[in-house]
Amino acid sequence: MPTTGFFTDATLCIGCKACEVACKEWNDVPHDGFVWRPRASYDHTGELGHSTWRHVKFVERDRDGLPSWDFSSDVCKHCEHAGCLEACPTGSIVRTEFGGVFVQPDICNGCGYCVVSCPFGVIDRRPEDGRAFKCTFCYDRQKAGLKPACATACPTDSIQFGDLDELRARADARVVQLAARGVTDASIYDPRASSVGGTHAIFLVRGDVRDYNLPPNPEMPTIRLGEAWRSAMVAAVAIAVVAFASFAWMP
Amino acid sequence: MTAAATTTGYRDRPLLKAPVWTWEIPLYFFIGGLAGLGAVIAAAARAGGADATLIRDARLIAFLGAAISPLLLISDLGRPGRFLYMLRVFKRQSAMSVGVWTLVAFSGAATASLALHFAGITGPVSWVADAVGAVMGAVLATYTGVLLGVTAIPAWAHHVRVLPIHFGASSLGATASLLELAGHRTPALNAIAIAAALAEAIVMWQFDFRGDAAARKMFTGSGGRLARAGNICTGVAPLLLRGVAGWVPAARAVAAVLTLGGSLVTRFGWIAIGRTSARS
């Protein structure tokens, strides 16, 4: 099976939110509040969450003294080394044959450990249900040979779906193409040098990636497992020594 | 244009999701730690030939904690069956998976140990139960620090090395204090409590109160103040009180009460610190 990916191009996004709607409809995701955010540049969705698996960000910035309004559809990054998958104590979160990170809802027990283990703040526990939810990469559609709902609905090809290696090559070519047209601040977000080891959802963004709430150097939490357990073992042994020595000398 | 163009980040939206854990989890950290080190003290007391009632009470703490802990976890998960989902796999890279299996092994050993006690059986089987309980108990009291440290939450990750020691030392002080308050005013328990308080006083200097603005912010919120207060009650305060207990007999009991309360409060503080840290 080829590893599939998303390539989301901010320079093509028109902010129509068809991806958000298609995702909700196909996956039967409940609404998570109709919050009017008049001072948030019409971004009434806010952020990714347990019931928002696609989120179009409306990024307002000053560019050359003029206001600019960029759109970018955010999604679960489907990390190469996924913090949520490592943390999951039930084995509910698995890697699919397409390389995506999938939460099996019948096995998730709602422990919430994935929530604090995601370096991108994607997965969350749905309070009324008690289990954790996030983008499934439309695993059911992929199994049937279909594109994910968001990529299918996108009217401008801002969300492209396909073979990950092919998309990575296409993304690099797009940066070169844009530079030739005078757009010199475009870059690809795919943190392959970090402990996350790259993402299966890659993004073309303009300017500082932090304006899109993308961490420049995301970290997979389990890289600290060794030092954490060493510390715990030192503490455990010290506790035993103190307890046994105290009773040995002062019975 | 209402969004500030000068600050980085997306509309002051936090990057991370806040921990969803409510009161059950910090209380479990406390009860589990108390129980785990109850088993360690039971084994140590038995090996040292201590009073039989002390050994019994330590085993009782271990058993009761082992019985209450899963109930707290189930309360957090919502349905009893969900607890069992964690027993379908063992994942060493998941601190929660290691923790839940430790709890299961500990519960078995602590239950066996107490049952054998009441049955009057003191042979090798009883020794095995005590030994397994002590080993699993020491892990149970410290793994919670690993659980928090190995996450994406900056304030927890930053203290990944000190949290297991903090949770272990505060649990040790709390268990010794609980036994003292149950009437076991032995020199050994006093020595254990002093060692734990000393470790907690050192731990206090290991918490990074300096750092940048974000690091300082972790300790200025209500959670940070709670963790600090708890740490003082398990460290410096009982250390001083136990120092003067020779002249003021009541000081030992006060130290014990403070240690127990501090050990509980600091765990609530650390969960709250995580909430603040994720959303800032």
How are the elements arranged and paired?
The complex is a heterodimer of chains A (251) and B (280).
Chain A: E1 4-9, H1 18-27, E2 54-63, E3 66-75, H2 83-87, E4 93-95, E5 101-103, E6 124-125, E7 132-133, H3 139-143, H4 149-153, E8 159-163, H5 164-180, E9 186-189, E10 201-206, H6 225-249
Chain B: H1 24-47, H2 52-77, H3 80-85, H4 95-119, H5 124-149, H6 154-158, H7 162-181, H8 187-206, H9 213-220, H10 222-234, H11 236-244, H12 250-278
Helix pairs in contact in B: 1-2, 1-5, 1-7, 1-12, 2-4, 4-5, 5-7, 7-8, 7-12, 8-10, 8-11, 9-10, 9-12, 10-11, 10-12, 11-12
The count of helical stretches of chain A stands at: 6
The 3D shape of chain A can be described as globular
Q: Total number of β-strand segments of chain B?
A: 0
Main interface pair? A-B, 73 and 81 residues
Tell me the strand percentage band of chain A: 15-25%
Largest sheet of chain A: 4 strands, mixed
End-to-end distance of chain A, in Å?
66 Å
Distance between the termini of chain B: 23 Å
Can you tell me the residue ranges of chain B where pLDDT is under 50 for at least 5 consecutive residues?
1-6
Assembly state here? heterodimer
By DSSP (H or I, 4+ residues per run), the number of helices of chain B equals: 12
Order of helices and strands of chain B: HHHHHHHHHHHH
Rg calculated over all Cα atoms of chain B: 20 Å
Taken in chain order, the helices and strands of chain A follow as EHEEHEEEEHHEHEEH
> Which structural class is indicated by helix and strand composition of chain A?
alpha+beta
Roughly what is the average pLDDT of chain A, rounded to an integer? 95
**Average pLDDT reading of chain B:** 93
Radius of gyration of chain A from CA coordinates: 21 Å
Helix content of chain B: over 70%
How much helical structure, as a percent, in the residues of chain A? 25-40%
